Structure formats: C-alpha cells, structure tokens
Amino acid sequence: MQYRCQLRTGRIVRSGAFERNNVAHTLRVGSAMQTIHDLLTEYGVSHQNPVNKRVHWVCVPAIVFSLLGLLWLLPMPGDLPTWLNWATLIITLAMLYYFVLAPRLALGMIAVVAVSVAAILALERTQLPLVIVFAVIFIIAWIGQFVGHRIEGRSPSFFKDIQFLLIGPLRHHSGGVL
Fold it and tell me: Which of 87, 103, 130, 149 could form a disulfide with 72 if both were Cys (CB 3.0 to 4.6 A apart)?
C-alpha cells in the first residue's frame, strides 16, 4: 500500500505514484530514486498528530536558526571574509540539495534562510552571549521535537534516513504542499 501527501491539505492519503506538472523531481539515494513527493510523503507519515504538527511549527525554524547561529560563530581556518563561515557553507550545500530536489521550494527557502541570517547579524551587534543563546534555543527546540514525537507515537523520520533533517525544514516551509 502506498501513501502520498495530498497537495492541497498536506494530509497523508493512500494512492499510487504521482507527479507535479508531469515532472517528478528526483534525487538519487543509494540505488533508489526518490522524488520530492516521496520524501515529503514519507516525512509526513510521522507528523500527523495536531499537537506534534504545532510543536514542529515552532521547533523546526528554531532549530534551523540556532544551528545556523552556532555555525556562524565557529571560526574558519585562514584569513577569510567574515561572511564566509561554516553557516554560509552549510547554507550553500543545503540550497544545492534543495534546488536539485525541488527548485520552486528552494527559491522559497532562500527567503527563509535570509531572514535567519539577518536575525543572526542583528544579534551579533548585541552584547548577548550568543553561544549560550543559540545553544539554549537549539536544546529546547530539540526537546520539543522529541516531546512532539512522543505524543505522535512515532520516531522522528531522520532516525530512518538522515536526509530527513533537510526535508523537515523544506516541508515546514512548503506547508507539506508543492
């Protein structure tokens, strides 16, 4: 039995394979080809409970923001411009992944990442202990994620496949639809 993410509602429904505009965006994972629809559907299976969905609505962006903040603070080797850091490197790699997988959604993720970077730059101008601020946000958000999955009664998707750590923010941004 196959399941898919219903395009308008984001709900998981039973059905066969499907494509968007007769084009299935795919990503090679091992020897299997997975479309964005396959990945969003599989991710969505463990995110059906309304409480877990609300928890993810808050925690996914908080995790992305705090992780980028922590990476922003890590020193890079050599004498590089300040904008060239671990966060911008990870952002670049993630955006390449998103553009290969779903170009339209990747464009939206650029705006999401830009807001995070703008907030990080604004916080840099404060006297706050940023390592502590970002670490606390990161830890609290992950605790929230695991509480949400406990309520859901299912393990997080990334326990099965690590690439779901990148699919989570994409699905959050898309609202589960394409």
Answer: 87
